[in-house]
Amino acid sequence: MIRLTQLAISKRSVTLLLAVGLFAGGIFSWGQLRQELVPDVEFPILTIVASYPGAGSSDVTEQVTKPIERAVTSVRGLESLNSTSATSLTFVVAQFEFGTDIKATKATVEANLDSLNLPAAVQPRVIIQDINAQAVIVASVQGVGALTLEDAARIARNELVPELIGVSGVSAVTVTGGTEERVKISLDPAKLAEAGVSLQQIQGVLQANDLTIPTGTIRVDDGQVSVSALHQFGSVDELQELIVGVKTLTTLGPPAIPGTPALPVPVRLGDLGTIDTVAIQPTGYSRTNGVPSITLSVTKASGGNTVQVADDVRARIGELQSQYAGRLEISTLIDTSDFIKDSRDGLVNEGGLGSVFAVLVIFLFLLNVRSTLVAAVSIPLSLVAALAFMFVAGISINIMTLGGLAVAIGRVVDDAIVVLENIYRHRGRGD
Q1: How far apart are CA 355 and CA 361, in angstroms?
Q2: How confident is the model at residue 164 (pLDDT cuts 50, 70, 90)?
Q3: Which of 266, 244, 265 is nearest to 200 (CA)?
Q4: Which residues contact residue 36 at a Cβ distance below 8 angstroms, ignoring those fewer than 6 apart?
Q5: Among residues 329, 420, 423, 334, which one has the least CA distance to residue 377?
Q6: Rounded (to 5) percent helix, strand, coil in the chain
């Protein structure tokens, strides 16, 4: 430490340049650091969720839960395994040793699950617990005037969600509330038997007419563009006219004249039952100020800056409110970045006041401008240098690091007073 002090004194211009560089780097880092509520912590826990529609809890246990448990048990580092089986659904929670590379472990578990002989309808999902994977913005959407809740829900799903997903750093937007329109096909068993058409045959025809097929590429200027052929049903009338089978003319009336060939007659889906659009009740319900509404929950991508994403989303919501003025009322209900901003601004305000009062106390006791300037420079320089090292190390600003910086301010002030008083005393003796 003595050599470092001697070097700093002998190379004062270099020391000054280093101090200026650290200060500039810290100021730059302050604007670049990610701002989160809590630090990024990887819990060594995986959750496997699998749905088996229509199956009872015992069938789910035997055909889904137990095979998944066997697939997870073989993974290295497993500490505990808990599972819950219910009608049509199973949850398997696997906890691994601390220090386990949870992302690599997830890949291993997914590979093991792919090799299982699970029922065709079962598609298990492996989820890593992310403490920062919560909604950064929760907004409410309500219809204005004659616009019904169903109309607001349709606009929210078809127009607002794509706009918000397009914001940089947003990974998902979840819609809660409202109703969805589905097509309901009710088939008459007697008509099916008369036409000789099976339920599986109708399902196959519907699936074959609702698909996307790659058909090649076309050259555009200096590049190539992929081309796909697709078909989707656009109306109920189109479904009613869909041909699902063929029956002969002899099944429609009296027996045909001997020797006369039977004429094939197409069987349309509308001839076998009724096709209607029905409103499906939502799994969630939302009310804002006592009025039914639609809720939009915006989740940021992993590694994104919570404050930046929240600011961008709120700005986009403001633009959408102006765009849909008179039709929709869009308001922000929850913004998790507010607490982060309050904590950040509180550190700046309290730390700044602490530094100012520390400098005043030093001046009042020592009555020395030079010593006071040393403290006035060293206290903020220590903090901004810490910010620069945080930026290099990839550490975010969160309640933990803000607490550490707040403690550091007190420690730096205390050390500055002690060291300066000691130097002042030695200089007073002629050293």
Answers
A1: 10
A2: very high
A3: 244
A4: 132, 305, 306, 340, 396, 397, 398
A5: 420
A6: 50, 25, 25
Rounded to whole angstroms, the Cα distance separating 293 from 30 reads 39
The C-alpha atoms of residue 330 and residue 324 are separated, in whole angstroms, by 9
Strand ranges in 281-347 using DSSP code E only, listed in sequence order:
287-288, 291-292, 294-300, 328-335
The residue to which tokens 């992929």 are assigned: 226
Look at residues 313, 319, 320, 316 and name the one whose alpha carbon lies nearest to residue 337: 313
Q: Any idea what DSSP says for residue 247?
A: E
Give the pairing of strands 78-86 and 89-96: antiparallel
Q: Which residues 6+ apart lie within 8 Å of 355 measured at CB?
A: 376, 379, 380, 409, 413
**Which two structure tokens, joined as six digits, stand for 31?**
């604007």
Amino acid in the structure at residue 340? I
Judging by DSSP bridges, how do beta strands 170-176 and 294-300 pair with one another? antiparallel
Q: Can you tell me the distance from the alpha carbon of 284 to that of 98, in angstroms, rounded to the nearest whole number?
A: 36
Sign of the C-alpha dihedral computed for residues 244, 207, 174 and 90 taken in this order: positive
Q: Which two tokens stand for residue 184?
A: 């309901």
Secondary structure element (H or E) that encloses residue 409, with its range: helix 399-428
**pLDDT tens digits, 75-111:** 888 889 999 998 888 999 999 988 888 888 988 998 8
Alpha-carbon distance 55 to 120, whole Å? 13
pLDDT tens sequence across 43-55: 888 999 998 887 8
Spatial neighbors of 259 by CB under 8 A, at least 6 apart, are none
